[in-house]
Design goal:
Blueprint: H1 2-11, H2 22-25, H3 34-41, E1 53-57, H4 63-75, E2 80-85, H5 88-100, E3 106-110, H6 118-121, E4 124-130, H7 139-149, E5 150-161, H8 167-179, H9 186-198, H10 218-225, H11 235-244, E6 247-253, H12 267-275, H13 278-289, E7 294-301, E8 318-321, H14 323-333, H15 339-345, H16 367-378, H17 382-397, E9 402-405
Parallel strand pairs: 1-2, 1-4, 2-3, 4-5
Antiparallel strand pairs: 5-7, 6-7, 8-9
Helix pairs in contact: 9-10
């Protein structure tokens, strides 16, 4: 079956990318922002030393590799990214993308993550494995292989397909398997699948998905509807996979998408939900929202006790706004962060004073400096600011709109 998997990605490298457009694309990926990695995997302390190594396992045409390589080239030019994949054609595209950016900090290797041994490159500080394990014959074998390649102090980011949010996709997959003939190949099935997508009834669950479009490129169509192997996961499945591999969950991303307490169900519900274990609350949240199509999460080795998020009470940290946080900041500064926005952000209610921090966060000043500046400018006591800050931090960090770091990237 691995030969079929390799053949599929040789014929249809995924995702489709034009390497000549890399200079204007500004590729960014969900989990590979250095500020985010630092917050969730190294306690907000940058550790990008000269021998730092990141592995992109099953890197395909290179999105994660490009994103990591561009950032590391600025932070620590001697750090290295190792990109591995089964497909020579995908590697060729990824290499072209890196070359077009004049980057020299990436090593490419055509190999399965199952076959990569620690002796080849040594152990890795960080591993990204997005959209790979659920295509393997044994996801557990893949997860164990990743754990074997990780430094004791290192961390991983993983993406696995979500069972609930992809239900419509699996309906289409099943229809295509039902009509498939023994002598069909992918070239035969692509136009049939495309026509099915164009003619799906309006009430079809996949067609009802937000952002539905029947017009997608061949590589996306094959990967989504005609893949040789595709197993979805629930939260419970993810946690079981990590335990079986000697790994532990650090956080799903964004945490708010798994937290039922972000929905105001009333005091009685809040009391019962707070009484649940952390894992049970995650499973409940998945069912409550019911639309998670991809599980993004950070993990570490089970015995790594130093891999914990920063303490928001530590005033030496620098608060850093990420994309959604910066958009919120712009709205606030121009007076368009309305009561509607505030209610949507904080259904349980957060004092409006909390949002004053948006005017002071610049990604350079520490919390101590921000508290002092706000105290002098607005004559608010530091103790009150600390109280407001915790509410503000919990709210924005739950959507990864804000992270904490000791250094500036």
């Amino acid at each position: 079956m691995n030969e079929q998997l390799q053949d599929q990605y040789e014929a249809y490298p995924y995702p489709y990318r034009d390497s000549t457009q890399e200079a204007v694309r500004n590729t960014k990926t969900v989990m590979n922002d250095l500020n985010l990695i630092s917050h969730f995997l190294t306690g907000g302390v940058y550790g990008y030393h000269e021998s730092y190594q990141a592995l992109v396992a099953g890197g395909g045409t290179g999105d994660a590799t490009v994103h990591l390589a561009r950032q590391l080239a600025q932070v620590q030019p001697k750090a290295r990214v190792v990109h591995i994949d089964l497909s020579a054609k995908a590697i060729h595209i990824a290499r072209k993308r890196i070359q077009s950016l004049n980057l020299s900090n990436v090593h490419f290797e055509q190999i399965s993550l199952l076959d990569l041994q620690p002796g080849k490159f040594g152990l890795f500080d960080y591993i990204n494995c997005s959209g790979v394990l659920h295509h393997l014959e044994s996801a557990e074998a893949g997860s164990i292989a990743l754990a074997r390649l990780l430094k004791p102090s290192g961390g991983l980011s993983i993406m696995l397909y979500g069972a609930l949010g992809r239900r419509g996709i699996y309906d289409v997959q099943k229809m295509m398997r039902t009509i498939r003939r023994d002598n069909d190949n992918l070239e035969d099935l692509i136009p049939l699948t495309r026509r099915l997508l164009l003619r799906l009834p309006e009430e079809n669950p996949y067609r009802l998905k937000p952002g539905f479009s029947p017009v997608i490129d061949d590589a996306e169509l094959v990967d989504k509807f005609l893949h040789v192997r595709d197993r979805p996961y629930t939260v419970s499945d993810v946690l079981q996979l990590l335990r079986a591999s000697g790994l532990k969950l650090q956080s799903f991303i964004p945490p708010a998408s798994y937290d039922p307490l972000t929905i105001n169900l009333g005091p009685a519900w809040k009391c019962r939900l707070e009484a649940l274990s952390y894992e049970d609350r995650l499973c409940f949240g998945e069912l409550l929202f019911g639309n998670i199509s991809k599980h993004f999460f950070f993990a570490s080795k089970d015995k790594n006790n130093d891999c914990a998020p920063p303490d928001p009470n530590d005033q030496t940290f620098i608060p850093i706004l990420r994309r959604e946080g910066r958009l919120m900041q712009k709205r606030y500064q121009c007076g368009s962060l309305s009561a509607f926005h505030l209610k949507k952000l904080a259904p349980h209610g957060v004092p409006q004073e909390c949002f004053r921090f948006l005017s002071y966060i610049d990604g350079k000043k520490s919390l101590e400096e921000i508290f002092n500046e706000m105290h002098e400018t607005e004559h608010v006591s530091v103790n009150s600011l600390k109280h407001y800050w915790i509410d503000f931090y919990r709210l924005l960090n739950s959507t990864v709109s804000l992270v904490l770091n000791k250094s500036i990237y």
